[in-house]
Amino acid sequence: MKIFQAFINTWKAACGAVSSSPVILIPQGKTFLLKPIWFQGPCKSPIQVQALRISNCVNVRLSGLKHFNSQRNHISIDGCNDVIVSGLHIFAPEQSPNTDGIDIAGSTNIQVMNSVIQTGDDCIAINTLCSNINITGVTCGPGHGISVGSLGMNGEVAKVEGIYVQNCTFTGSTNGARIKTWQGGAGYARHIIFDDITLINTDNPIIIDQYYCPNLINFHFKSQTSAVQISDVSYSRIRGTSATPTAISLMCSQTQGCTDIRLMHIKITSAHSSEPTSSKCINAHGKYTDSIPKVDCLLP
Question: Where are the catalytic residues (predicted)?
Answer without folding.
Answer: 144
